[in-house]
Amino acid sequence: MTDMLNPLFQVSEVARRAGVSIRTVRFYEEKGLLEAPDRTSGGMRLYDSRDISRIKLIRRLRNVGLDLDEIKGTLSDRESNHRERVEHTIEVLKLEAELSRRRIAELQQEDRERESLILMISQCLKCDANPCPAKCPPQQYVI
Fold first, then answer.
1. What is the DSSP string of 47-102?
2. Residue 70 C-beta-side C-alpha neighbours within 13 Å
3. What's the CATH architecture for 1-66?
4. What is the model's pTM?
5. Residue pLDDT, tens place only, 118-140
């Protein structure tokens, strides 16, 4: 039951090609993120390559922070203003990118702080004073 120009796939093959679980494919269908697939006379779901591409896009949008409602609005064919939806999605993605850049900067600062603390506390390995002297840690390492 395949057309050479647009082959049809069972849910297990769609899940494998999209890199998700079968449950995820069905969940996306239940949530309206995927159109209801064609079915065989026996009721088996049949998907095409567009469904695989759509699942991959949904995963990418989820991975950058969009929730399912935002994704559904972006991908919906029912809403009248396609351009408005796309522009909104771009703005949301830009905001998410800025949040990521800020978080990266925070993590880099935390990393620098840890490195500084490692240097400072490493000085304790050279010291055999017990208890630590009043000028501990050495002032050159105090920020």
1. B-HHHHHHHHHHHHHHHTT--HHHHHHHH-SSSS-HHHHHHHHHHHHHHHHHHHHH
2. 19
3. Orthogonal Bundle (1.10)
4. 0.65
5. 988 888 888 877 777 777 766 55
